[in-house]
Each structure stands twice: as C-alpha cells, then as structure tokens.
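Q: My hope is that you can spare some time for a protein that puzzles me. Underneath my words sits a plain record pairing an amino acid chain with its backbone structure tokens. Those tokens are not coordinates but codes from a learned vocabulary of shapes. Thank you; the sequence and its tokens follow:
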Amino acid sequence: MPFIEVKTIKNVFSAEEKPQIIKEITDIFGRMRGDEFAEGTWVVINEMGDGHWGEGGAVLLKENVPGD
C-alpha cells in the first residue's frame, strides 16, 4: 500500500492541522482506489528544522512560507 511522506519546515502546520492533512491525503487515495486501499495508506509528516533545506540554491526559512 502507499506510503506518503510530507516534508515541511517545523511548526508551519499546527497540531490541529496535521490530522486534517493526514485524513485528506488518505481520502484522496480512497476516492481513487477504494476504502480498502485507503485503510492501508500510510501518511507521515516529517518536519525539518528551519534553514535545514533549500530550493533552487536558496535556504528555506519558516518566515518565508506563504500564508504564514
């Protein structure tokens, strides 16, 4: 079954938002392949420290996250 890994900067999503992310991603797979498929879908949210990764050669910082 699918294993989906979501990587994000630490503290971008609240404790209340994380279960919603997991549920909505799982629901997408359920709509595509059925409830049995959704039941075996793993979703892991990996939070990276601020400044520990980059895009296009630039370091990503929480302060630069859109909507934050």
